[in-house]
Amino acid sequence: MQPQKSGIEHAQLKRADLFRAHGEQFKIVLREWDPLLHENMKATSLKSFEVINMFDYFQEATEVSDQTITVDNLDFGVANTHRVEELKKNRYLIYDINQQLIARVNYRTDQKQVASTELFDGFGNLYCVNMYDSRGFVSLSQWYTPDNKIGSETWQSPEGRTVLEAFNKINSDGSVEKVCWRLISRVGEIHIFDTLEQVTLHFLNLLNDEYWSKNEPNIFILDRAHLAQTVLRYLDKPSYNVLFLHNSHASDASHPEKGILNNNYEYSLFNINVYDAVVSATERQKNDIRSRFKPTTKLFTIPVGVIPMKQLQQQRVPMAERTFGKVVALARKAPEKQLDQLVKAVAYARQQVPQITLDLYGYKDPTNNFLAERLIESAIRENNLENIVTLHDYTDQVALVEQDAQVFGVTSSMEGFNLSLMEALAQGDIGVTYDVNYGPNAIINEGKNGYIVPLNDYKSMGEALIHIFKEPRLMQQLSDTSYEMSYRYSSDTVWAQWCLLLVDAKKMWPVKQANYFHMTINDLKGADEESES
Amino acid sequence: MNYFISENAFEFNSGTEFSQAARTSMYNSFGNLTLFVTRNYTPVFHRTIKTLGLNDHQVLNMYDFFQEATRVSRAKQNLRESVTIPKKRYVIESPNPDQSLILNEGRTVAKVNVMPATVALMGNVEYFDRFDHIVARDEWDYRGFKSSTAYFHPNGEVSLQKFYTPVGKVVLEITHMNVQGHLMPTMYKLINYCGANYRFNTENELFTFFMNEQLKQNPGTIILERASMLNTIPGIKSTKGKYFYLHSSHTNLKGQLLTTLVELMRGALDFTGIIVATKQQQQDMQPLTTLPVLAAPDTIVKENKTNLLANCKSHKILVLGRIAKEKQPQDALYILKSVQASVADATLEFRGYSTDRQLLNELDLLIEQLGLKNTVTFGNYVVGKMLDDVIEGAQVLLSTVPTEGNGMQNIEAMSHGLPVIAYNVNYGPNTYMSNEQLVPIGNYDQAANRIVSLFQDDKQWQEASILASQQAQLFTKDSVYKQWQDLNLQ
């Protein structure tokens, strides 16, 4: 739940809002260790009890109240230390009376809260780095080898109990690889795992136990397949497992019926029938999945976007009150978004409608040394659009941006849904998009709330822009339809689609339980103590 | 309160620990409260003290203290009942009584080393990565709780040790890093001890801190028993005396002062005085130091009785004590060879442990060469009643040790009425034994002749036995305690 979220996290947050509003219990389950998670969560609608981070779970730190730890709170075990602040490096250096370096204290900029401490022994060796959780406790300690590599790592509870350890192998090329994990549970059980995936399986088993109910199954919805796809299928007890496709399943989204699969989904789709259900965000993708894989598992279509009723019923902004000619796109500046082509489309259209401008919002993807951004910049230079195209960072003022724009453009080569487009149309923007799978060509209905042009044909997109901007009456009509058609994504409509899945899960539960209990005769939980003591 | 301080209590204790322990028991039996204090970490400490005749109330170990575990009652941890091994996930295989394997789908993820001399109790558990490299080792205390975890650098050397209270709170961390290219413990860090952290560069510095914490609560006299810990003493702030008990001669065989004692003798280490076992050594040492040198026995015998020859006419020669090069065990073999010329059925029994594999091989070779194969035995290290039986089953005790603090083994044997033949060495034997019991160092024939006489002349043996028990009279509890009281330690 980093501050700059991608579409998948946005989709999870919208789903959380939807489930919360309908009284359906849920947990956002996160796998990666993140000392800033609970700080970042404050910017979302999530409550701490709605989120279970795996490391938090083992660290008994799912709900911990904030405590501000500054350098003044630290105890290095050495009397009479003094410190020197290095403001540019956001750190203090701590010395003893003999001017020997005891520690470096790195702080976060707000309130100089301690982020980490680098500790030195009495012989000048860096032996440990302590990483602090934003809530004010040492979460992770990294223990160094004499040749200054991380040898092992230990995670602690807020009270200081060691709960999880990872051990590194130093490879012959000097690189460091985690090859062993050891977990010490709160009752004292000790587990050894080879991989983080095995740790994840154990964690999911514990969750499945903790929330087990005879009346309904735990439903695990896998939003990022790589985190658990290899282990979710091996849970000790039954559950209802769902793969959620947030993107095209085919590497080449325009040829979904053949070719290499999207890396993220390859393993899961080769094992598609181990899932109880696979959800696509669009009907078109669901049909493509069905025809390519012919799965026996159930397929559902559930949009990832939800537009609150309040927003659908709000005051509409007529086209005349918006900045004429304003085209926007809200997307990461990443290769598959091809935003340089949107710049070219605008350049083309400006030959006929010179008032057209373009604003691009989104964080820069660093892939290939920021290639996507460099392509955008060169397209701007080539067409002399320096004063016409404005590059912005990621914005959290989405509604204001979209209410001032008239057209929302999509030039991606691949999509899973495109939440931004859905939201823009709900704000009355007119959509223009390449005919791209999946999402844009479902959200936009040709000639009704926008236009769909052939993939990678920026001139056609330019023509579409000219067509829209030259006819004010048509423009208002398209905008009105955008507002109207957004009811397809109202929370009631989307919830109804979720209910189909929830009902199926519940319906399957007696069968699943019966199969499980048939195999195991008795649930062995607890039986070991009775029979072996 | 008195604090008698040494490194450790071992499975195989040496004379130093026996002496320290016997004195601890003696002081306490006279109502003079005394603790047997040790510095080293030993998970089986509370068992080893039993072999020294001590109980939990008479001992104080530094790690126990910081681990809040000085008084913990024992709860046996059978490995198959240990909560640490989830049996839903792991198979436990026990290929032999000393070791069990913890297997996950056929891979050994951990090995339980059974606590020595127990049936299936948790000793330590070693955990392995999938390349079979050790990653961590948990040590279990004799009393049944997980006491510490050692982590390992990727090259297999210990990197970090964490020590726990019986309820699992981390109270101490030891870091192992390089100093001038050599891996060694570089930091001892107390975590949240009375609300604060403290760090030390060495174990001895931690020990000094530990003793100061004790003395704050219970001021008392300190007697240090091990030279390896001399440098812990200057930092100890005591209102009472700080003494060093020297359990050996202060010189090497060439008559040179031991280098470990130079600073002490110079008076540089803030001691109040030095105590030795014999007046003779006291007199030799006093001119060498500004510190007062006192003398009081290191040995306390629990009884002194006369044995009957009928019980022990075994022609068995006993050699008692650690088998080490500096104790010249090969001399006893030459003497035995000589004895056998007159008493063909004479035998020799060594009782004591050895860590010197090479020496044992050399002794085996010598036994072979001398043709003593069927007449020499090496018996297990024993204490208590078993030791009593060994002493009472022999007909003479032979001591070929070239230098002594007092010769505890001689006194122990004499207290059972066992005649002793010993080298006439400093210090000890020549203060409590008479001339006919002593022979010059290295004079095998004379030693053999004395033994042959004892074996062949029953009357002489009986007189020697009576004399031995009389000589041991000096080392009974009442006698020794009085000698200690007369020192008037501060």
UniProtKB/TrEMBL annotation, chain B:
A family per Pfam: Glycos_transf_1
Domain Glycosyl transferase family: 304-460
SUPFAM superfamilies according to UniProt: UDP-Glycosyltransferase/glycogen phosphorylase (SSF53756)
Superkingdom of origin: Bacteria
Record key words, sorted: Glycosyltransferase, Transferase
GO molecular function: glycosyltransferase activity
PANTHER family hit by this protein: GLYCOSYLTRANSFERASE, TEICHURONIC ACID BIOSYNTHESIS GLYCOSYLTRANSFERASE TUAH-RELATED
Protein name per Swiss-Prot or TrEMBL: Glycosyltransferase
